[in-house]
Design brief:
Length: 75
């Protein structure tokens, strides 16, 4: 990941990591500038396997982003 991040940075960009539900994976990957960019709840069909759904249920969509590290990370 660091090599890709450095390559992207050498071209003037920055590698952004994406996570769902919470930011723990981004923090584990030592991402910086971690922030939530979406926290919405939409409706989807109820998921029943035996018969056709007849109502909607909530589907939370939480999206987090963070900038990937480019250099060595202290332990």
């Amino acid at each position: 990941m660091r090599a890709v991040s450095r390559d992207v940075a050498s071209r003037g960009g920055r590698l952004v990591l994406l996570a769902a539900s919470d930011a723990s994976g981004l923090r584990t990957a030592r991402a910086t500038d971690v922030r939530q960019v979406s926290a919405v709840t939409v409706q989807e069909d109820a998921r029943l396997l035996e018969h056709r759904p007849d109502h909607l249920v909530d589907l939370p969509l939480d999206v987090w982003i963070g900038v990937a590290p480019t250099g060595p990370v202290a332990p």
